[in-house]
Amino acid sequence: MTDLSQIVKAYDVRGVVPDQWDEHLAELFGAAFVQVTGAEAIVVGHDMRPSSPGLSGSFARGAAKRGADVTEIGLCSTDQLYFASGHFGLPGAMFTASHNPAQYNGIKMCRAGAAPVGQDTGLADIRARVESWAASGLPATDATPGTVTRRDVLGAYADHLRNLVDLRGIRPLKVVVDAGNGMGGHTVPTVFEGLPLELDALYFELDGTFPHHEANPLDPKNIVDLQARVRETGADIGLAFDGDADRCFVVDEAGDPVSPSAITALVAERELAKDPGSTVIHNCITSWSVPEIVREAGGTPVRTRVGHSFIKEEMARTGALFGGEHSAHYYFRDFWNADTGMLAALHVLAALGGQDGPLSDLVSRYDRYAASGEINSVVDDQAASMAAVREAYAGREGVTLDELDGLTVTADDWWFNLRPSNTEPLLRLNVEARDAATVSRVRDEALGLLRA
């Protein structure tokens, strides 16, 4: 039997094409997706990677063979696929490997209304069917083959976003956007059309080989060009999107990065102004400032594990208005609880353009603490290293431990979280404190323990 354990992850399918998977397997995934979801119709989209059209088309063919009508929306961002799933009330599949290198591709799948499909919500069943069929062949079916039709939803997606955030009355802003040759180059021009924004476009040519830099703005080296252009041109703000344009990173007028926690707090405050008293989700490694500002704005913060499946589950369970992660994923009730970096970007532009000061002044009130950023350590035994750190802090006066996601150690004036990578022999450390000196001290102590 074919073993797909290397490409079927916790939340999606992802691997090297054609070494780990190909169009034949994509067709089987399409058939399995229809069987597991029971869908009579689905929507399918893809990014700009060279392998994406073939894989997407094969998936659509497999789905149609099992009786589902397929709407292909073609080139799109991941949040545009989520829009189509929510707008049409259909399960969906997005072909992308997000920020991974060009030889990778993958599938992000959802049920109707953009509800996530993960290991516990159908992905394990899909994998089992594909593994079986890869060995024995696709079984016969009595279903009448479905149709495959094309439909452009980019304009409707842009209209939906602009209806959620009104930018018509803001002062004119000069905005540099680095699309990283990813799908932001497809969506930004349409979303920004007619708004009081002077767009300076960096790397908007769709090119899944990523000739300029990786489409991963979380890595500081990939926003250097954006920072330089903002400084050179005197722009008001810089935005960087990842490869499938579902995440958005922000730099201020000086080219300095704005933390995703600060963006989470800013957007939460704006959303709570529309719906006071609502719940806001944040993961366990966002800044202390996020729950503080949510409470100050009259909302109820709820802390959860890292990862979009957990966030979306909590959004649905609590009826939350908004959710944010340190990785620059932002989730909105008005967007079917799905993540959309573009909507977060519009909120930031509206806030900036609605007052006269620079972005650095605007976000300063949301950025209250010093932080280490994420520090990765290669370890031979994740469990043993985690246990050594846990033992060192257990019972220490004034310190509490919790294991909602990895290990979080909290004191009066600092905290840190230590989490194992799901895919690599790494431990990820994040430290926050009331001042930089304390961050350095706590960071060095924790690293000394886990690297010993």
From TrEMBL:
Name of the protein described by the UniProt record: Phosphomannomutase/phosphoglucomutase
Similarity annotation: Belongs to the phosphohexose mutase family.
SUPFAM superfamilies with a match to the protein in the record: Phosphoglucomutase, C-terminal domain, Phosphoglucomutase, first 3 domains
Residues of the Alpha-D-phosphohexomutase C-terminal domain: 374-446
Keyword Plastid: no
Keywords: Isomerase, Magnesium, Metal-binding, Phosphoprotein
Residue span, Alpha-D-phosphohexomutase alpha/beta/alpha domain: 6-132, 156-255, 261-369
NCBIfam families assigned: PRK09542.1 (NF007088)
Originating species: Streptomyces hazeniae
InterPro entries per the UniProt record, alphabetical: A-D-PHexomutase_a/b/a-I, A-D-PHexomutase_a/b/a-I/II/III, A-D-PHexomutase_a/b/a-II, A-D-PHexomutase_a/b/a-III, A-D-PHexomutase_C, A-D-PHexomutase_C_sf, Alpha-D-phosphohexomutase_SF
Cofactor(s) needed for function: Mg(2+)
Keyword Isomerase found: yes
A Pfam match: PGM_PMM_IV
